[in-house]
Amino acid sequence: MDRLDVFKIIAQQAAKGELTFPANVNATLKLQQALDDPDSHIETAAHMVMAEPLLSARVVALANSSAYNRSGNEIANVRAAVSRLGFATLKSIVASVIVRQLGSQITDPQLRAKAAKLWEHTAHVAALSQVIAKKVTHVDAETAMFAAIVHEVGGFYLLSRAEEYPGLLDSNTEDWLEYGEKLIGRGVLRQLEVPDQVLQAVEGLWHGGAPFPPRTLGATLVLANDLAPVASPLHPPEVAERRRAAALIDFGIGGSTLHTILEESAEEIESLAAALLV
C-alpha cells in the first residue's frame, strides 16, 4: 500500500468520525466538554485541572508568563492561575494538552522526534498568533491562540497512527499537503468540536494566501505560521523556505511597522512559547 492510499484510508476514517484516540486524550476531552458548560465555575475548573499534572504545570506556567503576569506577581497555585487566565485561555491550554497527548503513545524514536518538532512549531505559532492578534490584526487574541494550537492537530493524529504503517513518514512529501493535511485535519478538528470560525481560519492556512493587510483570524494564523522560527517537520523543506521568504515582508501599522512591533514584543512571544513548551 503506497503513502497516498494510507492517507486516504485515515482521511476517510476521520471524515466518518472513526478516530482512534489514546485513553488519556479521551479523559482530557471530557474536561474540555466540562469547560464548555456555561454553569462551570472557577473552583470546579481548578479542581479538574489539578487532576491532570501536565495541565496543572502548563496553566501555572502560562499564568506567570509576561503576557498574563503584567504585575510581576508570580502565582504558585492552580486556582489563582485559572482565575488570572480565564476560561477562554484555559480552553486553549486544554486543547494544547490534547494535541500533545496524541503523540504521547508513540514509541518509534523518529516519529517521537517529529512529534516534538511539530509541537515546537505549534508553540511558536501560538505565541506569535496571540501577539499579532493583539497588536496587528486586532482580532480576539485568545481565539487566535486557540486556532494556532489546533492548526496542526491533523499532523499529530497522523503521527499517532504512523506506527501502524511502517515507512509512512520516512521522507517529507507533497502528498501530506495536497491530501492528508486537509482531509485528516478537518476530520480531527470536527471531532474536537472546534468553532466554525477556527475551522475556517485553519482551512485558510491549508489553502495558502491571506488578505493583505492582515485583518482577519485566518490572516493572523497565516502570518504567525510564516513568521514561526521552527517549521513543521511534515512539510517539505521548500515550503518552509517559501514561508520564511514571505515573512521578510514588512508593512506599516499605525505609526509603527510589523517588524518593530515584533521586536518590541519579543520577550512576550518568547515567554508564551516557553510556557506552552513546558
TrEMBL record:
SUPFAM superfamilies given in the database record: HD-domain/PDEase-like
Signal peptide range: none
Pfam families: HDOD
Domain HDOD as annotated: residue spans: 21-208
Highest taxon above the source species: Bacteria
Protein name: HDOD domain-containing protein
